[in-house]
Amino acid sequence: QLQFVESGGGLVQPGGSLRLSCVASGAASGRTFGDSAMGWFRQAPGKEREFVATISWKTSTYHADSVKGRFIISRDNAKNTLYLQMNNLKPEDTAKYYCAAATSRYYSDDEEIYDSWGQGTQVTVAS
Hints:
Helix content is 0%, strand content 47%. By secondary structure, it is an all-beta fold. The strands form two sheets. Strands 2, 4, 5, 6, 9, 10 and 11 form a seven-stranded mixed β-sheet that branches. It has a four-stranded antiparallel β-sheet with strand order 1-3-8-7, with no helix packed on it.
């Protein structure tokens, strides 16, 4: 199974920036990081987990409307690493952020196709 180590979360003031990283290892049913679409999801206290951004194996991307223009998902397959650059952060971005690998090469906002998840990294936006 693909495994992930996430980092980069923390406390930041509104308007600030953070970059999350997610380093992958292992394989799932012969599928490697480079073969998989990847996604970022987040979950705030008392709320359901929600989609943030996704990237295909060939780096096509799709972002949720709530983060479009502020967040950028990217990947470096040579380093088995997924990134989320977060700019102009708002208090409503406060959540635990999770990276996940899809069972497909093509990006999707459907949580159901993601079968390998990281442990999450906390992002808190507050003054």
